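Renewal narrative, Specific Aim 1. Our central claim is that a sequence can be written position by position from structural information alone. The example that follows is taken directly from our test logs and has not been curated for this report. It begins with the structure tokens describing the chain, in the order in which they were read.
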């Protein structure tokens, strides 16, 4: 089993580039199913979740080729509609293949998706919306059998919560459905806009994305295109947290400031200077970090739940008391016990965590409990005195491309053993 070993309290300096976004690349790969011919995705991150998505595409009959940062997917020989249980259980976003496969083939068989353990993660909104669009969905022994009969049709769908995955699934299913679909209370995350822009480049007619009402006028068919995956805003938040906790000055390349508008003020309250210019961000940490006002995770444009853990790691060394309220997932504080093993003073109950900043964190043997919680331990390890050893790093590899290389390149002492 691989581990990350970090010798902490080293100052970081230099430039570090942000790779393509996992949470955009995965729905884009699912969307390739809808596009006839070849699609090329550039800036596609090398992550275990991306490899799992490529394996799903291969199982469906697509030809996938990875060359450096690009992936090409040819769907000319796509004929299958079954997604193997083993691949469904690997990641949550495997569920967005449902809308895409139904749109292309009209039938789909798959099981309930897996993914990080963050509390219950039902797919009721996905199912209800697809049924509204004409899909017949039956469940037996954990397998979903879906059939669209004569085809999917447009519908007016009102989501009870702006679910990212449900919005993506509806957009995918609606892109080639008969008529117009309108999604009210749609998710507004930048990854939704990336998906809509990609589909439009393939010939779809989607408008309103990035707002809470999205309109999808179904078209007959989609064609392949070349597209560049957006940068990963959570990886950027992780790098900012690492710079903050180590008291460092770093430059981040390949960023989009509009995606992190809710994150920047938190670091400014901590006393850090953040200066974005075009697609770069200059970050200078405070000499001594200060606690910040209450952070409440919210759907975009609010503070993202995916950045909660890494920012909490930085706050664990900030002078004063900070409070984090996790509003999106019912159980997303798995990292708290591990951070406490490193000397952090954090109490979590229900959806609230109270962080009393400590002067020093000290290295310890800790375990990644989920993807972002694992990244938080890397951040804490970089800021801790002595050696931190993180196990179960398979979670971290789901969303960070060679995290040890990224941090080593700016002076961290971190290796994979
Ligand atoms: N929900 C339902 N029913 C549904 C769908 C969602 O009750 O049918 C609930 C969920 O249980 C959760 C809330 O709604 O409490 C939000 O879930 P959402 O559907 O928005 O999340 P997701 O699509 O499952 C994506 C990201 C997550 C990210 C969330 C929120 C991907 C592959 N995953 O998940 O990313 O936390 O949106 O922004 O895009 C991560 O990258 O570490 C990660 C967990």
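The sequence written for that structure reads:
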């Amino acid at each position: 089993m691989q581990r990350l070993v970090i010798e902490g309290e080293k100052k970081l300096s230099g430039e570090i580039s942000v790779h393509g976004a996992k949470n955009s690349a995965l729905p884009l790969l699912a969307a390739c199913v809808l596009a006839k011919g070849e699609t090329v995705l550039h800036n596609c991150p090398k992550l275990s979740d991306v490899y799992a998505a490529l394996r799903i595409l291969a199982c469906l009959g697509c030809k996938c080729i990875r060359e450096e940062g690009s992936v090409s997917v040819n769907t000319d020989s796509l004929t299958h509609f079954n997604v193997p249980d083993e691949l469904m259980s690997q990641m949550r976003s495997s569920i967005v293949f449902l809308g895409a496969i139904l749109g292309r083939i009209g039938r789909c068989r798959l099981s309930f998706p897996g993914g990080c353990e963050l509390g219950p993660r039902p797919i009721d909104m996905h199912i209800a919306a697809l049924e509204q669009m004409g899909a017949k969905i039956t469940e037996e022994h954990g397998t979903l059998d879906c059939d669209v009969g004569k085809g999917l049709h447009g519908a007016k769908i009102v989501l009870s919560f702006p679910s990212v995955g449900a919005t993506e699934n509806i957009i995918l299913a609606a892109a080639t459905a008969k008529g117009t679909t309108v999604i009210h209370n749609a998710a507004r995350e930048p990854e939704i806009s990336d998906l809509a822009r990609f589909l439009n480049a393939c010939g779809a007619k989607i408008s309103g994305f990035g707002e809470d009402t999205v309109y999808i006028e179904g078209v007959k068919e989609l064609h392949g295109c070349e597209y560049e995956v957006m940068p990963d805003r959570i990886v950027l938040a992780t790098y900012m947290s690492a710079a903050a906790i180590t008291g460092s000055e770093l430059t981040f390349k390949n960023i989009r400031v509009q995606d992190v508008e809710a994150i920047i003020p938190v670091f400014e309250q901590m006393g850090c200077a953040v200066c974005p210019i075009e697609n770069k961000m200059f970050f200078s940490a405070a000499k001594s970090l200060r606690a910040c006002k209450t952070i409440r995770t919210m759907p975009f444009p609010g503070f993202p739940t995916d950045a909660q853990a890494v920012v909490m790691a930085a706050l664990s060394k900030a002078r004063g008391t900070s409070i984090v309220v996790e509003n999106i997932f019912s159980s997303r504080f798995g990292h708290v016990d591990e951070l406490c093993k490193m000397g952090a003073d954090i109490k979590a109950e229900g959806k609230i965590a109270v962080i009393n900043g400590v002067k020093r964190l000290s290295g310890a043997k800790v375990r990644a409990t989920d993807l972002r919680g694992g990244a938080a331990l890397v951040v804490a390890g970089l800021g801790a005195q002595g050696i931190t050893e993180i196990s179960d790093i398979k979670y971290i590899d789901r969303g960070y491309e060679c995290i040890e290389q990224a941090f080593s390149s700016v002076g961290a002492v971190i290796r994979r053993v």
